[in-house]
Design goal:
about 15% strand; alpha/beta; about 45% helix; 8 strands; Rossmann fold
Length: about 290
């Protein structure tokens, strides 16, 4: 089935699952690495609809759906960080390039950092966009997690009954997309299967983050750009945004070729609110 987000393809996995991806642009014969985009928690290729055309002007760019999201096969395995890193590696093997520039938003940041630490020779550069920080206590609060999981369970049940719930922030983001993209995105993100995959990622989050924090991973000596959203529209964000930005800055400063960028007009959703900035920082790494 065609997708308005790019030319579709599927990466087969050893257990029979398939990861759906879309690509735009070309890099053959130009000596430029392919750019692969990793979405945030519960997000599919849809997240990159405004960024991909800008990057595709210079090189091939690929966005994919993690297991159970978009058009990818659901996964019966626990969806912890290690499993997502493993799937990413299979996708990159399928694409067949020697090295990649990897860009990830939110949860995508820890996934890419874990992959890069384990596979330094395959990474030409990293762009981490308002990435989740495993040291932030918010991810481990049991009360917040219990409430979030309960809300997700109810939402899944309603979706199964045909009741489509689209949060206000999601509606705001989708309004930024062209009509065709918005229609395709809504058709997928309101399905019960999509919501179950999101819940599975969220349920395994604290244990994966705890292991990542304990491992003290070392990134390869490649250019690393960390983008932070500057705005904090909610009370909770206002509480943790300064701490998150400070952690982003420390990460960038710890890298030999690190760079920290503040997205002045964005909160957490930088790829939609400032796609030009995201694309500019990705393209900077292509040389």
């Amino acid at each position: 089935m065609p997708s308005v987000f790019g030319d579709p393809g599927y990466a087969p996995l050893p257990d029979g699952r398939r990861l759906h991806y879309v690509s735009q642009g070309f890099s053959q014969g130009e000596g430029r690495p392919v750019v692969v985009l990793e979405s945030g928690l519960g997000a599919s290729r849809v997240e990159w609809g405004l960024v991909m055309p800008l990057v595709a002007e210079r090189t091939r760019v690929v966005a994919y759906d993690r297991a159970g999201l978009g058009r990818s096969t659901p996964d019966r395995h626990r969806r912890d960080l290690e499993r997502m890193v493993e799937d990413l590696g299979r996708l990159l093997d399928h694409l067949g390039e020697e090295r990649y520039v990897l860009a990830g938003h939110s949860l995508g940041g820890p996934i890419l950092r874990a992959y890069a630490a384990a596979n330094p020779g395959r990474v030409a550069g990293l762009v981490l966009i308002d990435q989740a920080v495993e040291d932030l206590p918010f991810y481990y609060w049991r009360s917040v997690r219990a409430l979030s999981l309960a809300v997700q369970t109810v939402t899944i049940g309603l979706a199964g009954l045909g009741v489509k719930i689209v949060p206000k922030e999601v509606r705001r983001i989708l309004a930024l997309f062209p009509k065709e993209m918005r229609r395709e995105a809504l058709a997928e993100m309101t399905r019960a299967s999509e919501l179950r995959a999101t819940r599975a990622e969220y349920a395994a989050l604290p244990e994966g983050f705890a292991r990542l924090r304990a491992s003290e991973i070392t990134l390869p000596p490649v250019p690393v750009t960390v983008i932070s959203g500057a705005l904090a529209p909610s009370k909770l964000e206002r509480r943790f945004r300064p701490e998150l930005v400070a952690a982003h800055r420390r990460l960038a400063e710890a890298q030999p070729m690190g760079r920290h960028v503040l997205a002045e007009r964005s909160g957490h959703m930088v790829p939609q609110d400032e796609p030009g900035l995201v694309a500019e920082e990705i393209l900077r790494l292509l040389g």
